[in-house]
Amino acid sequence: MRLRLLAWFAAGLAFLMMVLSPLAALADDTTEPAEPSSTTTATEEPDDQAGDGETVEPPDGPYITVVLQDSANDDAPIVGVTLTVTAEDGTEVGSAVTNDEGRVIIETPERGAYEVELDQDTLPDGTELSDPDDASITIQVRFDGPNPGLFPIGVEEVVAVPFADRLVTALTSGVKFGLIVALAALGLSLIFGTTGLTNFAHGELITFGAVMTYVANRGFGLPVILSGVLAVVVSALFGWVQERGLWRPLRRRGTGLIAMMIVSIGLGLLLRNSFQYSIGSARQSLSQYVSQGRRDYGFISLADKELAIIGIALVTITISCVLLMKTRLGKAMRAVSDNPALSASSGMKVDSVIGAVWILGTALTGLAGVLLAINSQVNFLMGFKLLLLVFAAVTLGGLGTIWGALFGSMIIGIMVEVGPLFGVPSSIKEVGALVVLILVLLIRPQGILGRRERIG
């Protein structure tokens, strides 16, 4: 029987790899969508053209490329502008004139720092640099191939946004992020509260939901909404396969929780590397809802997809809490969480209840991955990066408690987004939330709500 279950689990993983493998080629051809910009940029591989409209092959070695566009005129290319490249010792490396696309390509003899000077006298009438004093820039040539430069042209002066407006925006983003974390934390709390397992592969379950959405959308051409629904269903099925093929046999063998935690670390590594092989290391985009303008709703502004993310998360969390509080399944989950042995002696099918917990928990976690993919696109590390915050949310609210997971997630989400307004660098904005976690646990080790408020 054990061998049969392990065979089923292995077959499930093999099927997963078979489905994901064809996406490796697709990932190479799918690029991350460019963020809208109002400045001159050169982020793409240049077309094989140089100044004066002449067609040339890009050099094999390092070279500098600059694209001049007028941001004040719908990013129209600026033609006929002369740019000169000078080495650090003052030696002129070369010069070129922007072609019909506003692009120049200037080869450099080696890597290093070079100064690029724009001849303002060659700018068309009515076009000027945003700052006339910035007619030269320094470019660090570090790579063989294109090394882009930037000259802001036609960029209007940025008006400082009042602190109150920035605070409202950060709080709104914090609520949205907190709700996504809450879905994943709810799944983690259900599994931990029922089985006692600290699942370090939980982050990969978030990524699994996102990757399945990407598979259905990009691989099979389904709309994003339908892809997300299918991803949640497949995530629930994957949770059931894990329970039947891996965790249940380990429990029946009497495997300790520490050993099972180590198994979850190995499973997380397996899934993470499988995702990297399948979709690549670059961020991948869905076919819809990549970039949307915001609408004003009173004193807050939200894109349609952000409003949908908040609404879907709230409805799902509400339904889950009602399910856990009012239904027989919810009562059974609470009973198994409190005392599995007593529940079994009372005639309750403990393994079936735990199986239902895994199905519900992975479905909620997969939904978190779907919403995160719609919000910020797909990357093989997205769940792994979120794992620490999910653990922090569950611990902050109280281990094994549903309300605690929700409450802790909202605190974590808001702290992460609001922190940069109070001096926390954006690159480490998660640190503020973790500091709050430490301070709370020093005062109340059982978490904010503790065990008394548990509903599941």
From TrEMBL:
Gene3D superfamilies: Immunoglobulins. Residues 33-43 have a biased composition (Low complexity). Residues 30-61 are annotated as: Disordered. It is a multi-pass membrane protein. Pfam families: BPD_transp_2 (PF02653). Keywords: Amino-acid transport, Cell inner membrane, Cell membrane, Membrane, Transmembrane, Transmembrane helix, Transport. The keyword Cell membrane applies. The keyword Membrane applies. GO terms for cellular component: plasma membrane. The chain crosses the membrane at residues 177-200, 220-241, 253-271, 307-325, 353-374, 386-416, 422-443. Residues 44-57 have a biased composition (Acidic residues). GO terms for biological process: D-alanine transmembrane transport; L-alanine transport; L-isoleucine import across plasma membrane. It is found in: Cell membrane. GO terms for molecular function: L-isoleucine transmembrane transporter activity; L-leucine transmembrane transporter activity; L-phenylalanine transmembrane transporter activity; L-valine transmembrane transporter activity. Belongs to the binding-protein-dependent transport system permease family. LivHM subfamily. PANTHER family: BRANCHED-CHAIN AMINO ACID TRANSPORT SYSTEM PERMEASE PROTEIN LIVH, HIGH-AFFINITY BRANCHED-CHAIN AMINO ACID TRANSPORT SYSTEM PERMEASE PROTEIN LIVH. This is Unannotated protein.
